[in-house]
Amino acid sequence: MPLEIVTIPCLKDNYAFLAHDRTSGQTAVVDVPEAAPIAAALRTRGWRLSHVLLTHHHWDHVEGLAALLADHPATVIGAAADAHRLPPLDVQVAEGDRILIGSDEGVVIDVPGHTVGHVAFHFPASAVLFTADSLMAMGCGRLFEGTPAQMYASLAKLAALPPETLVCSGHEYTASNAKFAATIEPGNAALISRIENIETARAQGRPTVPSLLSTERATNPFLRADSPEIQANLGLTGADPVDVFTEVRRRKDSL
Ligand code: ZN
Ligand code: FE
């Protein structure tokens, strides 16, 4: 049975996620921006926390961990590469390692770029992918530590997963990402209709995360370095996709 996913708004614009296995009763939380909303989401459903999956070391993804663990002891899993600057880890993981939530197997994917030790967690049987600040809804994380080539390679790995994969990313940045996307690919009909959906959702106070990987492939400019329209609008027709990606990221950063 697929994991049951719950999206939990935290802080100003962060998301944490619960992933619950009905058979075993095990429940993981992905990232801990703050403890209270996560504890409340567990309490409401009567779920017991069993695992914490950390995507990267930034404070807005780990700040609530100690407070959450105080009342909800759980196995904390994070990247071995960043063990020195993550909260204390019970299990250190790297690319290709497997983790189990109940009987549902997750695969660790190394996705450097936003930070060098950033990891994503993919649960193929549930078709769910936790990306935090790597692949985001219509965007990607800023390159605080990695190079554009590293982030491009990270996003390429994620984009190659099955299109029906649900992408659970770390922030509600979609409206501003959409505004930017429309400036570089205004002729993309899928993008224009997605922007309408996003505006409606935000006007009603609904999250725009998670999203489908197929939707990201069709509308996320950071996955579309091969789009002739984007290449033409950037003056980079026929250029290396890494160079196109680098220019898309540079323009978004300079807004
Ligand atoms: Zn971050
Ligand atoms: Fe973040």
Describe this structure in words.
By secondary structure, this protein is an alpha/beta fold. It folds into two domains: 4-169, 4-Layer Sandwich (Metallo-beta-lactamase, Chain A), CATH 3.60.15; 174-253, no CATH class. Helix content is 34%, strand content 25%. It has nine helices and 14 strands. The chain has helices spanning 35-45, 59-62, 65-71, 148-159, 174-184, 189-203, 213-219, 228-233, 241-253; strands at 4-10, 14-20, 26-30, 48-53, 75-79, 91-93, 98-101, 104-110, 119-123, 128-132, 135-136, 139-140, 166-169, 211-212. Strands 1-2-3-4-5-6 form a six-stranded mixed β-sheet, with helices on one face. The longest helix is centred in the last third of the chain and has 15 residues, at 189-203. The chain is globular. Zinc ion binds at residues 56, 58, 114, 133, 141.
| Gap from first CA to last CA | 44 Å
CATH architecture of the largest domain: 4-Layer Sandwich
CATH superfamily of the largest domain: Ribonuclease Z/Hydroxyacylglutathione hydrolase-like
- The proportion of residues in beta strands is 25-35%
Q: Which geometry do the CA atoms define?
A: globular
The helicity comes to: 25-40%
Bound ligands, each once: zinc ion, fe (iii) ion
Mean pLDDT equals 98
**DSSP, total strands:** 14
The CATH topology of the largest domain: Metallo-beta-lactamase, Chain A
Helix/sheet category: alpha/beta
Radius of gyration: 18 Å
* H and E order: EEEHEHHEEEEEEEEHEHHEHHH
* Sheet of most strands: 6 strands, mixed
The helix count comes to 9
List low-pLDDT spans: none
CATH structural class of the largest domain: Alpha Beta
How are the strands of the largest sheet arranged? 1-2-3-4-5-6
Q: In the residues, how many domains can be counted? A: 2
